[in-house]
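Attaching the record inline, Q. Sequence:
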Amino acid sequence: MSKDFLVFDHVTKRFGALTAVDNVSLTINKGEFFSLLGPSGCGKTTLLRMLGGFERPDSGRIYLEGKDITDLPPNERRIHTVFQNYALFPTMTVWDNIAFSLKLAKKPKAEIEEAVDGILEMIQLSDQAWKYPSQLSGGQKQRVAIARALVDRPQVLLLDEPLAALDLKLRQHMLIELDAIHDQVGITFLYVTHDQGEAMSLSDRIAVVNKGKIEQLDGPAKIYEAPATRFVASFIGDTNFFEGEISSIDGDYCLIDVDGFPQIKAFNDKNLAVGQRVSLSVRPEKIRVTLNPPLPEKGASINVFPSKVKDIVYQGVYTKYWATSSNILISALKPHSRFLLDQETITWNDEVFVWWHPDDGYMVEAK
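Structure, as predicted:
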């Protein structure tokens, strides 16, 4: 078997007529922060539970550091899980919650004290050691749950929607803390979430899961900028889709005859031929909205379309616009990199121009 750190080898899991995980093969590196990202019911938690030993695959094998662990019970795997509900013992102090697994393993008292005190210092809760879970904030409880799972140095830490119970600001703060904890301990983290922002912020690599299969496995930037499928393009952030057919090829670029819309120039990243159907994905932040058409760029044919503003949402760091062009609704983001009140004002029903560079669209399979 391969010496890769963690391997799912053609793993399938069914629940009655439902195939929750469908012939998944996946390799995770030692020390990696790896995320399984997808909508509810896509199979990501089932993958996590099979790795933890709480479910057994119907076919395929799971290997950890070259050892087949498929049939090992959970207590014989050096794999720990952090859940969104913390699962702390309410009648134990923070210190005793963290020490629990070490005491269960009958570790020497001095070793337990050194390990617990050290990890309390790492999560910056030394001054809370003798409090009970009910006396802690949500973020503090989550840090204690993570510390308890890490104190005896597992090979893998599984995190199943660990921040779902926290409010937005606390989630954002915990993302930074999780990243810092991972850097300090160097243990492989396998993170399960439906929140693309969390996965993009934390992960070395992400597997996007849909209907029991992995649609794309890449780094965050590649998944966002170069989605492998239409599902990935739509699930990771917002995007505009333009459906059409390749009408001509000009070097690295092509012209797309779009259904019910003017022709669009795009980088032909898939090397498609004339006559092939395609969906072009253009992210809202790639699209500019201005009262005047853009100045011509040397050597580039910018896609420019007269439009009418239909809706505007101001969100502080940016404004989101929806504009109609040839009866197609297009979304665009305008970042506020300069003082907003000194900039041109675009309002509802304004006649505007939406435009983007041909390099800023990305082709996925036709609808």
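Helices lie at 44-52, 94-104, 109-122, 138-150, 168-185, 196-202, 220-225, 230-235. The longest strand covers residues 303-314.

More tomorrow.
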